[in-house]
Structures are given as structure tokens and as C-alpha cells.
Amino acid sequence: MEAVRAQYETKINAISDLLEDLPDTDEPVWLLGEQYFVKTEKSELLSDIRSRLWFTYRKKFCPIEWRWEKENCHPEEYHRILHCFLDRKDCCYSIHQMAQMGVGEGKSVGEWYGPNTVAQVLKKLALFDEWNSLAVYVSMDNTVVIEDIKTLCKLQPMKGQLKPSSSGQVEPQVMGSMHGQLNPQAQGIPGSHPGWKPLLLIIPLRMGINHINPVYIEALKECFKMPQSLGVLGGKPNLAYYFIGFIGDELIYLDPHTTQAAVDPDFDGTVDDQSYHCQRRPQRMKILNLDPSVAVGFFFKTEADFDRWCTFVQQEILKKRCLRMFELVEKHPPHWPPFIPPAKPEVQTTGAELVESMDKLFESEEEFEILNV
Q: How far is it, in rounded angstroms, from Cα 178 to Cα 72?
């Protein structure tokens, strides 16, 4: 009891000190909508302050979230993500697959990809990534359609098989329509929530003709402030950067233009990840030096997360800007073609069987052929 009393008296003294710091004035004190006068209502003011919940810094608690640290042990899911991006043709998001998938976007292997092309390639590759069932939406004409996104993220395709057709192409065979069949039994997908597939939203933008228009700068900064932000793809002509934030009038970015040795997984499936984390000081560039062609990315784990983002965008970007960076609309525009959620496209092989499961991608490189859409 003595310890409790001493702690209580300490808090009272601290609050009293606070009141003594207030000026001896006839001006009112406003406290969360309540008005007080220090000279005549000191006890009431003290009581109000004492009744409030006071959340402060704490210590010696369990970690809230995982964050990469050099030479520490990391979760199995982390290593599996790295597997997807290894520089091997049997990895879903390898440079090999990105280059070959770009052919379907009219880009020859080795040709420069703009932000929009990268977005379209990722959208296609995600259809073959059955491990995380990520929904990818790439906006058209600077417009994000809420109705289309909710249709996409609430669609649960039935599991099926890939079988070669008589023409030698591989076609998706599913137990129901990929364009409308909901599968309420779809469960066990990492990171998914009932009735909603995790969403990667990519918004390709053109913020000027030859140079970025300064009127877009504040809206671009607001994008980095959102908790759902995945940053921005862009850069300068023939120099692609990944922008992760800003300070003042400068963007902070990661520069991929460093050649490093390819990495193979160890016998236990782990990946030596030291080269996958930049150890250098953050690099910066003036926002006005940014090429006007960019792609802004966001991630939404739940539908509520997406709804919060929509509200923020409407309040902070659309209503406060004379020239909007992009549009956010509720319904599918009637003059657009009907929205059809993407299905796994036909792929061509060169004789080898296409791997049906992501689990098999890690077994043998010889069993897999580069996808060609």
C-alpha cells in the first residue's frame, strides 16, 4: 500500500506541476471539448486530467512486429519470399520470368520496361503464384474503381490443374468459372482473410509531359504517409529506382544498379540474405528531377484496410488538390469494357511439363519452362 500511495502522490505532484506551469490568466483552458478556468476550477481541471487514459512509452515487452536484422534468424515465410525472387527460371518472380512475360506486353527480352509495363508483368505473374493468392489490380487511365477491386478481392477461384491442349499449349482447367465462381471453402492462404484476398494496388501515373508538374508534389508526398504505402516505381530516363519515402523536397530511394553474385538456397531451404538488404546510407534525389512516368503502390491485407485508404484518399488527395494525381470512383465507368477478373492465361512450353504447384518450383529447375503469354 505504501508503494501504491507513493506512486499516486508522484502522479498528483506531476499534474500539479503541470498546472503550475499554466499561466495565471483569466483565459479559459480547453481540454478535449471542456472549458475550465484555472483560478476558479483548478480541482475540476485536475480531476478531468486524472481521469484520462495515459498511454506512454513502455519497455521489456514482446516485439510487436518482425523486422529484418543482420545475422538474425528469420521466419520460414521470409525465406520462401526470397525463393520467389531468386535469379532462376523456376522462380515465379525471377528476372527470367519477368523478361519473358514482358514479351506479351510487346517488350523484347532486354528491352527497357517502364513503370506500367512492370505493373502489367507483375499482374500476370501473380496469377501463377498460388502460394499467397495475391490479387493484383493495375488502374486504367489514372482511375481506381472501388467496385472492380472488391469484385477481384472477393473472388476465390477453385483449384484446378494445368493440362496441355491438343495444340501443345497449357490451359487452366478449373471446377467452376474463374470469372464469377466464389469458393467459400477457400482457406489456409497465408495472410488472407475470410472473403478478401490480399491486394496489391498499382497506379501507373503520368505527372507531366517531359518533367514532373510541381502541382503533384504534395499529393505524392501524401502517398508516402499512408500506412498502406509500398512506395513508388520510377526514376530518370534509363535509370529505375524504388522510392520508399521523402525528406523535405527530396525522395529517398533504393538503387538497384549494383551487380552482385546470384544466390542459391542452402540445403535446408534458407537463403543467404545479406545481399538483399542495402547496408548503405539512404540515397536521395530532388523530387523535381523525377521522371513524370511513375507507378504508385499500395497493399491492403483486409477490406477494412482498403476502405480506410479510400476515405483518406478522398479527404487528403482528391478534395484538397486542384489538379488530381488520380481518380477514385465507386462504380465501374459505363463507357469502359466490362470488368473481368483475370484468369490464369494460356502458357506455352517447349516440351517439358509445367509445374502445377509452387512447392515443386523449389525441387528441380529442369521440370520448369519459362512462361510465355
A: 42
pTM score, two decimals?
0.69
**Residues 219, 325 contacting (CB under 8 angstroms):** yes
Backbone angles phi, psi at 136, to 5 degrees: -120, 125
User: Cell 514532373 appears where?
Assistant: 212
The DSSP 8-state label assigned to residue 356 in this structure reads: -
Distance between CA atoms of residues 156 and 133, nearest Å: 9
Count the Cβ atoms, other than its own, within 10 Å of residue 121: 23
pLDDT, tens only, 125-161: 999 887 878 999 999 999 999 999 999 998 765 443 3
233: part of which helix (H) or strand (E)?
strand 229-236
DSSP three-state, residue 70 = coil
Tally Cβ neighbours within 10 Å of residue 104: 15
Burial class (CB in 10 A: 0-12, 13-18, 19+), 153: buried
CA–CA dist 123, 142 (Å, integer):
17
Digit-coded pLDDT (tens) for 246-257: 988 889 988 888
Q: Is 245 helix (H, G, I), strand (E, B) or coil?
A: strand
